[in-house]
Amino acid sequence: MSDGAGTRDGIAGLDFSAVTPEEFAKIVKSLSPKEIDEIARDGELRARILAEVFARMERQFKPETAGSLQALIRWQVTSAGDRAEAVYETTIADGVCTVGEGRSDATPRVTLAMGDADFLKLVSGNSSPVTMFMMRKVKITGDVALAAGLNRYFDIPKP
Q1: Residue of 31, 90, 94, 14 whose CA lies nearest to 56
Q2: Cβ contacts of 83 within 8 Å, gap of 6 or more
Q3: What's domain 4-153's superfamily in CATH?
Q4: Where do the SCP2 domain residues begin and end (predicted)?
C-alpha cells in the first residue's frame, strides 16, 4: 500500500469489527504518517476508524489495573486542512470505562491533543506515549502522570 488512493481504498474496504487489535496494530505500523493523513482526508472513513478505536477502548479496558481511579480523559484528534477536530472523552470510574463522542461540560483530569497519524500510532501500540510527549507530538494538559500511565489501563496490542 504505497500510494494514497490504494491505501485509502484498502482501509475503506475493511470491516473494522472483524479486525483484531493485533491486526489493526500491524496495519497502522505498515502505514506512513503521510498515508494516514491521506486516509484521514476522507471524513467518513476517518469517522469510522475513530469510532471503532474508541469503541474498543471500552472492551480493552483492564478494570483490575484501574482500581479506584476516577478520571475523565479528553482526546482531541486534530487534522490538517479543513477537517474538523474529533473530540472523544473516556471516563474511568468504579472499575468501568465508558467512551463518548464530543466535548462535555465536565472538566477533564487530562486532555491529550495530537494529529491523526500520531493518535493511531499511539493507540495501536506503535509509539511510546513518553517519546511522543518528549518529541511534542502529543500535547498534554492537566495530569501528566495519568497521561504517562494510561497504557497500563488498557490491553494495547504489541505490533
Answers
A1: 90
A2: 40, 41, 43, 46
A3: SCP2 sterol-binding domain (3.30.1050.10)
A4: 63-154
